[in-house]
Design a protein that fits this description.
The chain contains no helices and 19 strands. It is mostly beta strands and 177 residues long. A hairpin with a 6-residue loop joins strand 13 (121-122) and strand 14 (129-134).
Length: 177
C-alpha cells in the first residue's frame, strides 16, 4: 500500500480508482487546481495526478484532458493518444471517436488515426460498423473507413438483429445490414 495522500479517491471500477489532488494556484490562492490520476487495488499509483480530467476506463483505456486538449491512456498510465484532440469519446469495438477542429474521425486501440477526421457527426462502432454524417446526410462505414451505406440518408438507426431503420427522401425504410 502506498502512503500517498489524495484529496479524493473514487470507488474502484475494473480494479482502478480515480484519485485527485488539490494544488494551490499562485494566480488564485483561494481556488486550488484539481488534478486527476489513478491507483490500483494495491494503492499503487498507475496514473500520476497530472490531468485536468480523467474518465473511467473503458476497454482498458481512459480519456484524459490536459490543457484543454484530449487524449487517451491505458490502465498502466501509458499514453495511447497524445492530448491533441478538441473532443473525444470512449472506446467501443476497439475504436474511439476523436474530433479535430470541427470534424470527427476514429483512432484504433493503439492510438493510430485509422479514419481521418472528415465527418460532421460520428457515432460509436457497434458490430464493426459506425453511423457517420457528412454534408447533411448519414452513411455507414466499417473500421477501415469503407462506405457500406452511401451518404444519402436523412437518418440511420443502429442495427437491431441485422435490420436498420433509415429515412430517405422523407420516407422510412428497413435495410438488412
Amino acid at each position: 500500500m502506498s502512503n500517498k495522500q489524495y484529496s479524493t479517491i473514487a470507488p474502484f471500477y475494473d480494479d482502478i480508482a480515480i484519485v485527485s489532488v488539490n494544488i494551490a494556484d499562485p494566480k488564485s490562492p483561494d481556488k486550488p487546481r484539481t488534478f486527476y490520476g489513478a491507483i490500483n487495488k494495491e494503492g499503487i499509483e498507475v496514473v500520476p495526478p497530472i490531468y485536468n480530467i480523467l474518465w473511467l476506463f473503458n476497454e482498458k483505456k481512459a480519456g484524459v484532458c490536459k490543457n484543454d486538449k484530449w487524449g487517451f491512456i491505458d490502465a498502466d498510465g501509458k499514453i495511447i493518444a497524445e492530448c491533441k484532440y478538441n473532443e473525444i469519446w470512449h472506446f467501443s469495438n476497439g475504436m474511439a471517436r476523436v474530433k479535430v477542429k470541427s470534424k470527427w474521425g476514429y483512432i484504433n486501440a493503439e492510438g493510430e488515426e485509422v479514419i481521418s477526421s472528415k465527418y460532421d457527426t460520428a457515432f460509436d462502432f457497434k458490430n464493426g460498423t459506425a453511423i457517420v454524417k457528412q454534408n447533411n446526410y448519414y452513411g455507414l462505414i466499417d473500421k477501415q473507413g469503407n462506405v457500406l451505406l452511401p451518404f444519402e440518408y436523412e437518418m440511420i438507426e443502429p442495427s437491431i438483429n441485422g435490420v436498420r431503420k433509415v429515412k430517405k427522401d422523407g420516407k422510412y425504410l428497413l435495410l438488412h445490414c
